[in-house]
Amino acid sequence: MAILWTTGQQQQQQQQQQQQQQQQQQQQQEQEQQQQQQQKQKQQQQQKQQQQQQQQQQQQQQKQQQQQKQQQQQQQQQQQQQQKQQQQQKQQQQQQQQQQQQQQQQQQQQQQQQQQQQQQQQQQQQQQKQKQKQKQQQQQKQKQQQQAAAAAEAEAGSRSRSRRSSSKSDSEPPVKMNLADNILS
Description:
- By secondary structure, this protein is mainly α.
- 92% of the residues lie in helices and 0% in strands.
- It has a domain at 141-161 and 176-185.
- The chain is built from two helices and no strands.
- The longest helix has 165 residues, at 2-166.
- The chain starts with a helix and ends with a helix.
């Protein structure tokens, strides 16, 4: 009986040991499962982080593209402004040329006016000279007429005297002095 009892106890102990081993194995399996789940969670977190990083990179790229667009627009605006400035400069140059031409025309007109004034002055001087000549000629004519009249008067006086003297002697002819003809000749 004692042998049976000891063998039964041994069997029970073995069964208990087996159960303990099984429990340990289960615990190990559970731990492994937990570890696997933790790893999965880590992987998921890493994936999320990667997605976030990708999104950030995309956003940065979009920002860079927008900045590039803005820069291009600014460059275009600058080019347009430069073109406008060049056009304005051309217009200013044209205006300056026109002004210079106008000034030259004005100078030419002034020169022509001066020449006309000089010609007018010369004409006036010539007219004055002609008037002076005419006055001198008139004065000479008046003098000649006065001299002729005086000579005629003198001749008339001499004739009257000769007539008086002829009453005494008609044989001598009277002496005629044609002073007016001598003066006029």
